[in-house]
Amino acid sequence: MDQLSAKVGAVFAKYGEFNEAFQRESDRGCAVLVMCAVEEALREVLRHRIGEAGKGMMGQLAPPGAWERLIKSLRLVGVMSDMEAHDLDLLRQARNLFAHGATADLTFEHGDVRAYIDRLKMHKAMWISNASPRDAFTMSANAIMAIVVSRGLQADPMVVCPDIAFGQPVGGPIDFG
After folding, report:
1. pLDDT in tens, 110-146
2. CATH architecture of 2-153
3. How far lies 122's CA from each of 29, 51, 166, in Å?
4. What pTM value is reported for the model?
5. What is the per-residue pLDDT across 50-107, written as a single tens digit (0 to 9) for each?
6. What ranges do the domains of the chain cover?
7. Spatial distance between the Cα atoms of 133 and 98, rounded to a whole number of angstroms
8. Are 70 and 39 spatial neighbours (Cβ–Cβ below 8 Å)?
9. How far apart are CA 148 and CA 87, in angstroms?
10. Sequence-separated (6 or more) residues with CB below 8 Å from residue 88
11. In 3-state terms, what secondary structure has residue 166?
């Protein structure tokens, strides 16, 4: 358990450093950097969860920047809920507006960004209904990361299925009848 606590603590410590930096960023910088930090933490969870069974599979399951695959993979290994996946996808789409609209004059208050932010469920589930769009974005990202990291790093890694020992007794004949 000490090793697990250290791993969870390391992920949160790294995110804490990023979180301080986010406060000084523009809205564009905040959106992009928050999601970079969340992606890094969630990829670590997936790496832990697939363990030796998925050795060498990270590139197929969730290559860097492939948010939809990362979300589906985290759902597949049982560490992300429907609501978390829903909100992470909305956060991804809002982040993409900032990241791919480099010349657009975007803020969290912009109508296109708000269209995603206003549909987030996490911050509302936490009874924070009067949050600014920027706060709703960062609180939802923080909550998803905290929940999935805690849940994911506490789950045992998947194991490689052992080969069947053909020719070895397995407890008697098999009755197909």
Report:
1. 999 999 999 998 877 776 668 889 989 998 998 899 8
2. Up-down Bundle (1.20)
3. 22, 29, 50
4. 0.81
5. 988 787 888 888 888 899 999 999 999 999 999 999 999 999 999 999 999 866 789 9
6. 2-153
7. 14
8. yes
9. 13
10. 38, 67, 71, 80, 144
11. coil
Q: How many of the other CB atoms lie within 10 Å of CB of 83?
A: 14
Task: Please tell me the distance from the alpha carbon of residue 122 to that of residue 88, in angstroms, as a whole number.
Answer: 10
Burial level of 157, CB count in 10 A (0-12/13-18/19+)?
middle
The half-sphere exposure of 120 on its side-chain side, counting CA atoms within 13 A, is 34
In the chain, the amino acid numbered 73 is: S
Q: Which residues contact 80 (CB under 8 A, 6 or more apart)?
A: 71, 74, 88, 148
Closest alpha carbon to 98 in 24, 19, 21, 33? 33
**Calpha distance 109→116 (Å, rounded):** 11
Alpha-carbon distances of 28 from 62, 103, 145, rounded to whole Å: 24, 11, 20
- In one letter, which amino acid is 128? I
CA–centroid distance for 162 within its chain: 30
